[in-house]
Amino acid sequence: MKQAANSIVDRCHGLPLAFVTIGSLLSSRPVAEFVWDKIYKQLQTELANSDHVRAILNLSYHDLLGDLRNCFLYCSLFPEDYKMTWESLVRLWVAEGFVLSKEKNTPEDVAEGNLMELIHRNMVEVVENDEVGRVSTCKMHDIVRVLALSIAKEERFGSANNVGTMLLMDKEVRRLSTCGWSDHTISIVKFKRLRTLISLSTISLSPEMLSSIMSGSSYLTVLELQDSEITEVPASIGYNMFNLRYIGLRRTKVKSLPESIGKLSNLHTLNIKQTKIEKLPEEIAKVNNLRHLLADRYADEKQSDFRYFIGMQAPKELSNLHELQSLETEQLKKVMQLRSVWVDNISSADCANLFASLSSMPFLSSLLLSARDKNEELCFKNLRPRSTELSRMVIRGQWAKGTLDCPIFRGNETNLKYLALSWCHLGEDPLGMLASHLPNLTFLRLNNMHNANILVLSAHSFPRLKTLVLKHMPNVNQLNIMDGALPSIEALYVESLRKLDTVPEGIESLRTLKKLWLLDLQEDFNTVWYNNGMIQKMPHVPEVRVSG
C-alpha cells in the first residue's frame, strides 16, 4: 500500500484541506492496493462526484462570508496550476463588485484582506512572496479547484471550459474562462448574460471573434485577454460595453486603442503593459473612474539596454482623472491619490518640479524613476515624500553628488524596504555607503555599476536584508562578506561579474541562505568553486547554481 499512499500524498502537495478531503474519501473505501490506485487515477472525477468529499469542502465553503465565497469561486476560473498575481486578483475582484471600501480602506485594501483570509484557510496557497514579505503569486490547489468548479457550476457562478466543451455549455453562464477559441464555436455560441470573459491562451482570437462575443454580451464587466494573439480592439467597444470595468491586454499584439474607449465611464483598470501601443488616445482622459492605468512596454526584450522599457505618450488631460491609484506612463501631473507611479524619460531639468509633485502625494508607496539616458544626472533634493507608505523605489540613472544625504534617504530610511539601482555609480564602496544609510532594507539590487573593484559587506551590515542582487558590475574582482553581515539573508544572486575569479570570502557564514546563484562570472570560476570544496562547506543552502 505504501507506493499507492505516497502517490496520493504527493498529489496533496502538503495542503491541509486536500489531506482532509482525500483522507475522508479513502476512509469510505476498502483498504486494498488496487482500490487506492484506481482512486488515484480517477481522483478528479471522484472528488467532483463524491457526496462525502463534497460535504467537507462545503463545510469550509459555507463558513465563508458572501464576498469571500465569490472571491474563492473566482480563483477556480483560472487554468489548473495557474499562478495568479495578487494585483490582478485584487483588481478583478474590485471590478466584479465583490468588495467595497470599508471605513478608510479602499476596495483594493479590502480585497487584499480577503485574499489573505483565503490563504489562511488553506483554500488558496502561496506560490511566492515578494521582497518585502507580501504575497506575490498564489494558486488554487488542483483538488480544491475541481471541487470549486463544481460548486461554481451548480450556483451558476461561472465555468472554465475548452473549445470542445463550449458548445455543450449553459448559454446563460455569467463568467467564462476558456483555454482556446475557434471561429466555428463563436459563430454558434452566444452568451447573453456574460459578465466576465477570461482567455489566457495564445490560440488566436480575431477581432471578429471578439466583436461577436461583445455584440451579444452587453453586461460584460471583465475582459481579460492576457497573452492572447489579438492584434486589434474592436472600435465598437465603447458603444455597447457600458458596464466594462476591467480590460486586460497585457503581452498581446494590440497596436492602438479605439477612440470609443473614452465612453467607458465605469472602467476601473486598463492593463496594456508590454503591448505594441505607443500612444494613449486623448479620449482616455474622459474615463473618470479609471483607478489603474498600466502602460509601459519593452523596447529591448533582453533588458540589456539602459531604457529597456519605455512609457507611453499620454494626453495632457490625464491629470483630470481623480480616481487613479496606479500610473505607469511617461507623464505625471496633479493626480494626488496615486499609490504606484512609474516615470520614464526624466531629464535633469525635470527633477525639481517632478519630485516636488511626487512629494505631495499622501498615499505614494511604490516609485520607479528612469532617466532619459545613462549619463543624465538626477537630483533628489526636492523629493521629500509626504507619504509614510513609500517603501519601494526603483531608480535608473546617474545620481547627483550628495544624493544619499537628501531627505528621501535621510528622512525616509526607516520606511524604505525595497531599493533597486541601475547605472547610478556610487563610487568604490557602494554597499558600505548604502548600509550606513538604509538599515531597514529587505531587498537590494545593484545593476550596471562600473566604479567599484572590491565589494565589502561589513559586520552587521543590512540586518534585515533578505534578497541581494549584484548584476553587471564589470570591474568587480572581489567580494568580501565579513562575519555578522547579512544575518537575515535568504537569497543572494551574483550575475555577470566577469572579473570575479575568487570565491566570495565569508560566503559560507551566511547560515540563513536558501538560494545562491553565482552565474556568468570569470570563465574558470566553476573550477575555483569546486577546488575550494564549497559544496561540502555549504550543505545548508537548498539551491546553489554556479557557472563561469
Automatic annotation (TrEMBL):
Matching Pfam families: LRR_14, WHD_DRP
Domain Disease resistance R13L4/SHOC-2-like LRR: residue ranges: 199-517
Gene3D superfamilies xref list: Helical domain of apoptotic protease-activating factors, Ribonuclease Inhibitor, Winged helix-like DNA-binding domain superfamily/Winged helix DNA-binding domain
GO MF annotation: an example: ADP binding
Keyword Repeat annotated: yes
Keyword RNA-binding: no
Top-level taxon of origin: Eukaryota
Gene Ontology biological process terms from the UniProt entry: defense response to bacterium; innate immune response-activating signaling pathway; plant-type hypersensitive response
Keywords, sorted A to Z: Plant defense, Repeat
Coiled coil: none
Residues of the Disease resistance protein winged helix domain: 77-148
Alphabetical list of PANTHER family matching this protein: DISEASE RESISTANCE PROTEIN RP (PTHR23155), OS11G0226933 PROTEIN (PTHR23155:SF1046)
Entry protein name: Uncharacterized protein
Lineage summary: Eukaryota, Viridiplantae, Streptophyta, Embryophyta, Tracheophyta
